[in-house]
Fold this sequence. Notes:
By secondary structure, this protein is an alpha+beta fold. It has three helices and five strands. It has helices spanning 44-51, 59-69, 77-90, and strands at residues 11-15, 20-23, 29-33, 38-42, 94-98. β2 and β3 (29-33) form a beta hairpin.
Amino acid sequence: xxxxxxxxxxxxxxxxxxxxxxxxxxxxxxxxxxxxxxxxxxxxxxxxxxxxxxxxxxxxxxxxxxxxxxxxxxxxxxxxxxxxxxxxxxxxxxxxxxxxxx
Length: 102
């Protein structure tokens, strides 16, 4: 299990290529992992995060992108992002590219 405190700043989350994102008309989506039969609902921020899980961006870069793209980002956004990504990793939706020490 990936603990949110164990994610190095250099971690580059990478979406599981088998996971399926189904976007709905109201900017929400359902994310499905056919390997595990896990499914999660994503709000518009979750969808924006998912689309950035390309193995190229660090968590810090994704957090900055969210601050640029959304208004009224809470002060806990970086911590919330780390927890969300840790949950996705735990459920098999993502892996990590790690390029250096924390």
